[in-house]
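User: Quick sanity check before I run a bigger batch. Here is a single chain. Can you write out its predicted 3D structure?
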Amino acid sequence: MPIRYVSTKSTVFHPDADTDSQEFVLIFGDEVETTGMQANGRDEVIYRHRTGWVRSDRLMTKHPLEMYFIDVGQGDSAYIVTPGGRNILIDGGSGNEAFQFLVWKSTCRLQNR
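Assistant: Done. Predicted structure follows.
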């Protein structure tokens, strides 16, 4: 099943293809797995072991550049994920705030696989 990425600031994850009800919101760069099913301008996707529907025009095939700025106490840390999948952490600080963010972010990706 092909992997796609959310291409807009946010998009709604619908429980079915026909209604406008929303289960939750996905944000730019979130990784989803498509099932190949399409209906009403939406693709069926799997996100964190949940199946739902996302507007087809809100998905892209290439991994985007992701940048996160993390409050680490006396300043900010920067975490970058390149389109090629490289992970870059700049100034993680002396506490564990950056580490906790990285654990959360990697858990999000692992739960989707």
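The chain has two domains: 3-60, 66-111.

User: Great, the batch can go ahead then.
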